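User: Okay, second chain of the day. Same drill as before: sequence in, C-alpha cells out.
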Amino acid sequence: MTAVKDRVEQLIADNGVVVFSKSYCPYCVKAKKLLQELNVKMTVVELDEDEQGPAIQAYLQEKTGQRTVPNIFIGQEHIGGCDDLFKLKSSGKLDALLAKL
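Assistant: Same drill. C-alpha cells below.
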C-alpha cells in the first residue's frame, strides 16, 4: 500500500489539478468536460484502466472519506466530486482556486 500512497501523494503534489476517475462514469465525464471547457490543465487517473486502480481508490477513501469518483484535487486540496466541482463553479470559488495554480 505504501507504493500506492506514495504515487497518489506525488500526483497530488506535482499537479495543479488531479481527477481520479473511471472512464465509464457519467459524473467523471461531466467533471472532466467542465475542466476542459475552462482550459484547465489536469492529470487524470482512470482507475478502471490502471492496474493499481482498486488500491488507489481504497487509499483515496482512507485519505478523503470519499469512495466515489470523480475524486478531485485542486492545488493539493481535496474538493470532492462532480457536484462539488459544479457548486464551486456556480459560486465563483472555482475560478479563485484555479487562479492560485
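The longest strand covers residues 17-21.

User: Thanks, on to the next one.
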